[in-house]
Amino acid sequence: xxxxxxxxxxxxxxxxxxxxxxxxxxxxxxxxxxxxxxxxxxxxxxxxxxxxxxxxxxxxxxxxxxxxxxxxxxxxxxxxxxxxxxxxxxxxxxxxxxxxxxxxxxxxxxxxxxxxxxxxxxxxxxxxxxxxxxxxxxxxxxxxxxxxxxxxxxxxxxxxxxxxxxxxxxxxxxxxxxxxxxxxxxxxxxxxxxxxxxxxxxxxxxxxxxxxxxxxxxxxxxxxxxxxxxxxxxxxxxxxxxxxxxxxxxxxxxxxxxxxxxxxxxxxxxxxxxxxxxxxxxxxxxxxxxxxxxxxxxxxxxxxxxxxxxxxxxxxxxxxxxxxxxxxxxxxxxxxxxxxxxxxxxxxxxxxxxxxxxxxxxxxxxxxxxxxxxxxxxxxxxxxxxxxxxxxxxxxxxxxxxxxxxxxxxxxxxxxxxxxxxxxxxxxxx
Length: 430
What we know:
This protein is α+β, with helices and mostly antiparallel strands. It is built from 14 helices and 23 strands. The chain has three domains: 3-102, 3-Layer(aba) Sandwich (Rossmann fold); 123-185, Dna Ligase, domain 1, CATH 3.30.1490; 190-418, 2-Layer Sandwich (D-amino Acid Aminotransferase, Chain A, domain 1). The model has no long low-confidence stretch (mean pLDDT 96).
């Protein structure tokens, strides 16, 4: 039986979802605020619309005759698009607005962890009074992380002892326009993420991925939506043990047990510290770029996950290729602080060679595809080792060139991966 699936969102993450469904028995329809040429080529229909407008999304879904839906962006979840689709009897693989608060409200997230004794919760306090928050900064013995409670696209966090000192943190708190913030202890270690499929009380997990948020090589510069990421041929990453990976899964399972009725993707962002696994945050959707690491090596039909979730069945066990992946984003020159648009994208899905090309935010014109002011496209190499996968990604980027673009070439290179291993060995006192 052919399923008709709606995909909400038009970034690289959604292009990865579209590719995962392209080889299955699904007719794909997509809607997004931007027209992603890669998704449009895979879809039976593509509509440009405001994906935070539930009525517009539901109208397009009904017109397209879809059987079920997948939501990519967090803003659509926060806007209640899953609620509206579910109410229209279109099963949606994505949490409703209340459950999505595990991501969209960081104050709720921490209180939820505390209330349900979810392991790995750092010290934290939430504030609506910014002067009281500044007093907490003065009184706290150690470095803190300043987090706006709402969504900021991965760019709102400030870390004391790294990006700002105590005075800089207080200045940021006072000058920001946020009405609620969370202050929590700074965690020191190596970050990684695990994405899980959740429905009907089941949790099915994917390989660990390490994202690179900083704009420039050597982990310098401001935070971004993510400049690239890598995964290994095993479930864990080179700087962690299998048991540490399983500790993260135990935390995710505890969260799922407490999130009664949750459906969709639960993304755990963790910090491996000398004291074990801590939770940086939970997200309620696929990561971008992490979806581009995990979905290409998923051998289980993603459509089978969606239909099992809808039909109330046990989710299928997930099978992955035993291969490593390296994803590198090409972003417009000046990104993220002063991005310049209008550069010609010189690589396409054929010229990318052995790499997979995912479009993100681009402008398709009659004479070619051009950059906008957001992340432009990503290339993913897949091979037996991280080093080989990185070389495949670099070969594709060489075709793309760098005119009007910027790339973090260090992601996935042996010396940077070794730095992660050495860092954890040092923290453990090995």
